[in-house]
Design a protein that fits this description.
It is a single chain. The protein is mostly beta strands. Helix content is 14%, strand content 42%. The chain has 11 helices and 38 strands. The chain has a 16-stranded antiparallel beta sheet, with no helix packed on it. A hairpin with a 4-residue loop joins β14 and β15. 24% of the residues are buried.
Length: 847
């Protein structure tokens, strides 16, 4: 890489990229120290540029902080030269000053004037970039590699030597990842008479040397098997390592693995652990092969030795809080606690200390703080190590230093999305104290939009200024695109469905979200079109308008008649959502719909809301709902209530209510990668005047208790039909439920390739309460009403790349199920039988 050298010598400032230009008549000889001193404070009479060919002087002058009429300032001129050097336009920059022949008319009387001269040599324009010499990487592969890393050569622009060198490094690193650590790339330049240059990257692949062995030297104090488990990038012992590029050595890959090893030590009792640089050497090992005949052959490769000094093993000793921290906790209305979350004698862990520090930071945050009012206090941790007892004493103290305030937040990598849209998602604000929790929650909300790739820690850079106590935050984002297609569906109330959701963002340049959804299956079809707008009316609220059309024709497996009704509903839905805090949000929902339900002519009075001879009913619904939700990283709470009819109008007079609580936390006992997840749900619906429409009941099953068919979580009702011989035939069919409650528990553990497995246990029950149905009530089978169902099994989830939608498949055993014979009449009976086991599938997370 070309070096830029800055020198200030006797009044002449010189920056040279490759060579020093010869003295010219425009740049005077070096002045004496007396003349240099006389330049200080002089007025810049003129700023002159020499050597420019293609670039206009105005374009260069726009990059300078010095202007005509300013005072001569060497420090400012030094910054100007550095700013020009960073542009990559010039090979050499030479700056000089000479007394002006005439003074400016507006300059003060007897003031000295000076002419500032920038003599530059423009870099030739890049006309062509070629790649040769590689047998492993074709030109298309190299161009794709550079495009992914955003290093594509800028044709028609000045040939920046630093940018060309970065391209060479990227090509060399790509060959290193393929097992060629001795690869090299040479840059050959060919300049033409028209001030253009052709660049050729001459590539030498080098021999194929894969990593054969990894050793840990020094005093690791930890089994090598455990340390190998921390190495994710360089792992030749893993299956299909060569296909997955796990047996290639690169410095970047090793640095990531070294950070993981150091983190493991610091979280398992070794706070003073040190991991040195890898010692890479060529090795020649003999291995035995059986094809085409038994023989031994020598294989060249790399042997990596990693020096490790674990240091002494420490356990947690005492953990205390200072009086200042206890006092501010009381001022915020929090009850003080004595147990800090870690038992005395546990292994020292930086991760646990950080969790406790962040927990106490959250405890001193004001309960009534608004969304943009961030905490002004932080918590410091004082660690005291006792080398004799090998214990660590931890003290949490209120930080005495003023909080760092965010001076600037910069988002890098934005092309299609506006800076304003991203800033609304990030809760951190400029001018406010820096808050890690607000930044983390904001990035999580941004990732959930699905328009950006997952944000890693290395994508976030925080630069602190100790003098001004300010912080500059830069976040690198990688856009997926403004258009997104995702899958939807699974096993629901009315059979299995499969659909697609297509969304377009900012099509009308109003930061709106247009969406179209189509779901269908053998028994149901749903079409929905919607438009959503965030920041409506200049507030933090969002407004959505959607039109839907649903058709349902269920065929329950336990129904002898089926299908015994079909429903067609259409309408509009307008939800309004307002964020109360970083995690809480309030929503108001208004729905206007019309439903048409058809029943078979043979159905008789036991069906709720249907009288003899009635085969079709039309019901209009005007519904208003209010909901509250809290969505944090590990906990989610939702409440929703709605009412229809009354002063709202319409023919449906219903009250609906639902609640859900889910939580996930890391398993601290068996494996650090496992996690426990719990969910509890409650759903209820009832009529306060008139009959409750049949389609409004809850036909729950697989989506709440895995292993059940649709409608099996609720009770059954007697259905009477008339046969061809005018006789009555009694059968049973799912009657739905108006009160359902369920709970689920899972133990999740990750597998390879973005796959996750979970062992689950679900249980729940459904009731049909006659008092909530109105005047018309079905003839229920009491033995099936309110029965507790439970299932257990294992589920495997795989996230589809690109669309980022989990595909779930499970196998469930119904450990608590309904299995009995119920008499319906003197001549007929009903076998209420839930299957013992079942396979199922679904799209999207269950919770």
């Amino acid at each position: 890489m070309t070096r830029l050298k800055t020198a200030i010598c006797l009044g002449t400032l010189l920056v040279s990229a490759t060579r020093v230009l010869p003295q010219t008549k425009d740049l005077p000889a070096e002045p004496s120290p007396a003349l240099l001193k006389s330049f200080e404070g002089a007025v810049l009479d003129e700023i002159r540029f020499t050597g420019l060919r293609r670039i206009s002087p105005a374009a260069v002058a726009a990059q300078l902080a010095s202007h005509q009429g300013d005072r001569f300032n060497l420090a400012r001129i030094d910054k100007d030269v550095r700013a020009l050097a960073l542009l990559g336009w010039f090979e050499t920059i030479q700056v000089g000053a000479t007394p002006a022949a005439e003074s400016l008319p507006q300059s003060p009387e007897n003031s000295k004037c000076v002419t500032l001269i920038f003599q530059v040599s423009e870099s030739p324009f890049l006309s062509k970039a070629a790649y040769s010499g590689s047998r492993l990487l074709s030109q298309k592969q190299i161009e794709k590699l550079l495009q992914d890393k955003k290093l594509t050569p800028g044709l028609g622009k000045p040939a920046d030597p630093a940018a060309l060198q970065r391209i060479a490094f990227a090509i060399r690193n790509g060959l290193n990842e393929l097992g060629h650590p001795e690869a090299s790339v040479r840059i050959a330049r060919e300049e033409a008479s028209n001030a253009t240059v052709t660049v050729r990257f001459e590539i030498t692949d080098g021999p194929l040397l894969r990593v054969r062995r990894v050793n840990f030297d020094g005093h690791p104090h930890v089994p090598a098997k455990v340390l190998r488990a921390q190495m994710h990038n360089i792992a030749p012992w893993k299956r299909l390592a060569s296909w997955r590029d796990k047996n290639a050595y690169t410095r970047e890959a090793f640095d990531e693995d070294r950070r993981r090893i150091v983190t493991y030590y610091q979280n398992h009792g070794f706070p003073e652990a040190r991991v040195g640089s890898a010692l890479v050497a060529q090795s020649n090992e003999r291995s035995r092969h059986w094809l085409p005949w038994p023989h031994e052959s020598a294989q060249e490769g790399l042997s990596i030795s990693i020096p490790i000094e674990a240091g002494p093993y420490y356990r947690f000793g005492s953990m205390t809080l200072t009086d200042a921290l206890r006092q501010i906790t009381k001022e915020q209305g929090r009850e003080p606690i004595t147990v800090l979350g870690t038992d005395r004698g546990d292994a020292y862990s930086e991760q646990e200390i950080e969790k406790l520090r962040r927990s106490w930071t959250a405890r001193i945050r004001s309960k009534n703080s608004e969304l943009d009012r961030l905490p002004s206090h932080s918590v410091d941790v004082v660690r005291t190590f006792d080398p004799e007892n090998h214990t660590a004493r931890i003290t949490f103290d209120l930080s005495n230093s003023p909080p760092y305030r965010v001076q600037r937040i910069e988002f890098l990598g934005l092309h299609k999305f506006s800076d304003r849209y991203v800033r609304r998602k990030i809760l951190l604000r400029e001018g406010r104290p820096i808050d890690e929790h607000a930044l983390e929650v904001g990035l999580l909300r941004l990732a959930r939009t699905g328009y950006f790739k997952p944000i890693q820690k290395e994508d976030i850079r925080v630069q602190l200024d100790e003098t001004t106590h300010t912080a500059n935050v830069s976040i690198r984002l990688e856009e997926i695109g403004q258009q997104r297609a995702s899958l939807s569906g699974g096993t629901g109330q009315f059979g299995s469905t499969l659909g697609v959701v297509y969304t377009v963002f900012d099509l009308l340049n109003r930061e709106e979200l247009l969406s179209a959804q189509l779901d269908g299956g053998p028994e149901t079809l749903q079409v929905m079109l919607g438009i959503a707008k965030e920041g409506i009316f200049g507030t933090r609220a969002s407004l959505t308008f959607s039109v839907f059309n649903n058709m349902i024709r269920p065929r329950f497996a336990s129904s002898a008649q089926g299908p015994f009704f079909s429903s067609h509903s259409e309408g509009i839905n307008i939800p309004w959502t307002y964020p109360l805090s970083s995690a809480d949000s309030l929503s108001v929902n208004y729905t206007l719909s019309r439903a048409t339900t058809e029943y078979p002519p043979a159905s008789i009075s036991p069906m709720s809301g249907v009288t003899l001879g009635e085969v079709r009913s039309r019901v209009s619904s005007h519904s208003l709902g209010v909901g509250w939700s809290r969505d944090e990283r590990t906990e989610r709470i939702q409440f929703a209530n709605s009412a229809s009819g009354g002063w709202l109008g319409g023919g449906e007079n219903m009250v609906r209510s639902s609640a859900e609580y889910s939580r996930i936390f890391r398993d601290p006992i068996f494996t650090p990668h496992g996690a426990w997840a719990f969910r509890t749900t409650f759903c209820g619906a009832g009529s306060y005047r008139g009959d409750m429409p049949f389609y409004a009941r809850l036909f729950s099953g697989d989506e709440l208790v895995r292993g059940l068919r649709p409608g099996e979580l609720g009770p059954d009702a007697v259905t009477v039909t008339t046969s061809a011989s005018s006789g009555l035939t009694y059968s049973a069919a799912p009657a739905g439920a108006n009160l359902v409650t369920t709970s689920s528990a899972e133990y999740r553990f990750p597998l390879a390739g973005g796959t996750e497995a979970a062992g689950f246990f679900d249980f729940g029950s459904g009731w049909l309460l006659p008092n909530w149905l109105g005047p018309a009530k079905p003839l229920l089978l009491s033995a099936t009403n309110g029965v507790l169902h439970a299932s257990t099994g294992i589920e495997v989830r795989w996230t589809v790349p690109g669309v980022q939608v989990p595909v779930r498949t499970y196998y469930a055993l119904n450990v608590l199920r309904l299995n009995r014979v119920i008499p319906l009449s003197s001549t007929s009976s009903f076998a209420a039988h839930n299957r013992f086991s079942a396979f199922g599938w679904g799209l999207g997370s269950l919770f």
